[in-house]
């Protein structure tokens, strides 16, 4: 099915986005679409206002587009010749959009010095997410990583020193079991630790899910099987149904003050770096630590994981590409890292390069939110990777989630789950190539 047909079948009605009125009608208009709402939208508008105040050639007008139809609306805009000039989208969509010819190669806007800085000085994982077939189609204005959030009080009450965290996954699992609390019926009332998310955990076992340009895949590997087996084994100790009941009883809304960790329901949990800023805003009295997930004792790799987040793209049929590029540079900090540092700090986002992270403004902020440093340590590690830059990345991610779910439920063994994953991915790839796709 073609992109056009898929979009026309899937999308019937779009909720309209909303924007602020123009303040500088004499300037060149740069239309910017994003998906943030609520408090996040206010932060974005502050960045837009800062850019508009910094020069007198362009006016960026931000439009909040509901996430449920944003990608489809974008595609229709590109096809119809009326897209935004710039859009922020999830990193996983970038290779697919690039493969279908919807995006502009961003290096075509770069000066030689900007190319050098971007390709040589960026954090490799963050840079690679926006790459497809050797060209840059997306740049981050806020990357995301996962690490462990630790409730200091609960660890101390259980006899653990929160400043001497386990150095192996096995030690962490043992700690987690001692931190669990149950009611008189044996139901979990507090979860000490839960090992999950195969796509992420696999990197700590020396694995990960990769698809290379030559077609070679690393999916059903010994390292990935070990990672999935560890997830299954630990879930058995907790009880699959017990964990489900516990999770169903949580009032845990992403981005809100109801995060279960804030209220003591989770002793050790891994989550994104944006939670550091949320804890500062909504629970400043909570004493906590942040640590990378420790690797297993045998064959493990420290400071691993995959990067995701928000990436800026310029549609191939955008009307004001140069203005879009100027705003993108302004936000990312490609030309002025210290100025851009405060933009990343607003949302608790990870910057595109060490130049921003080491800037005076970022370092000053880091002193107040020192637990954020753990994420920068992971980001700088060679074991922190980008997802494979393939057009059918979402299909692969769905297969990984399904394999984990089936294995954890006991429907199949970890080995069988990953064998099926690789088989289905190769089958889908063969179908796509038969239809004329490169991958």
Automatic annotation (TrEMBL):
Record GO cellular component, one term: ATP-binding cassette (ABC) transporter complex, substrate-binding subunit-containing
InterPro entries: SBP
Cleaved signal peptide residues: none
GO BP annotations, alphabetical order: maltodextrin transmembrane transport; maltose transport
The entry's keywords: Signal, Transport
Pfam families: SBP_bac_8
One GO MF term attached to the UniProt entry: maltose binding
Assigned protein family: Belongs to the bacterial solute-binding protein 1 family.
Official protein name in the record: Sugar ABC transporter substrate-binding protein
Organism, scientific name: Fimbriimonas ginsengisoli Gsoil 348
